[in-house]
Amino acid sequence: MPEKVTSADVARRAGVSRSAVSRVFTKGASASAATVEKVQKAAAELGYRPNTLARSLLTGRSRIIGVVVAYLDNQFYPQVLERLCHALEDHGYRVMVFMTSNTDRDVENVVKGILDHQVDGLVLASVSLTSDLTAQCQAGGVPVVLFNRRQADAGACAVVSENHAGGRMAADHLLGRGAKRIGYIAGWEGASTQREREAGFLEGLRAAGQGLFARDVGDFNDAGARDAALAMFKSDSRPDAVFVANDHMAVTVMDVLRFELGLSVPDDVAVIGFDDVPAAGWRAYDLTTIAQDTDAMVDATVDRLLTMVEGSDIRRTIEVPVRLIKRSSA
What does pTM read for this prediction? Predict the structure, then answer.
């Protein structure tokens, strides 16, 4: 095996100091254009790659952010993950992605494993966090941001949408189109997003003097959404409109209504979702929905996380506005 090329080799070839080589390969460090050109030319000729592990031992920073997600079958989260990776890479960080379930024990095991990798920060997307685990992260100097989930008792910074306002928008829209028998298909009831969306929705119905006609739980997954739709709509006494707690479930509900129960959307049943994932805009669904501003949520997450990495304590919740996207399903 050939010997590994070092920064000293590059420095000799370029005729500069090792510290100059280090500055060229450190994002945000200062180096003249001439030095950058010489160092990059020498590195290319020698096949040099900077040793990020060795640098992390010297600086105490790994330049790695851990991201924990519970599931990726919902189109919302692959979108978020892609944008989060790009945004962090723009700041010189790499992302390590870890999958988990929503159980406290599984999350705890995964997060402890991540901390062993000496990450500089953590983003937990759609995942709960115990206060004890938050304290362990803080004691280890690892800041945490909850994405699309809030948890007041955990003492962590959170970035969420205005879910309550979005639920109210859904109610107002269905009421405005004359719906009288309105149903709701809930997500996983342990999620703050689910609770807040339903609370806003019920508030909107009450303000108009209406109550909820039917309710079932889809748990934010395909199988749960299908079972909930069949239970809610298989009888003649069915809702004429339904708010589904996210788009991932809503497209499944639409498939059940049209292809299993022979109902027309929106003539027999109006359907509205939440998120505005890519499938919501497909002609096959054309789903009316409450859109989350993914770019703004990612920007806020990166800003808060990296500010905390630099040593500031800003553990508070950021709420990002939502908006109604009108399509043919409602």
Answer: 0.82
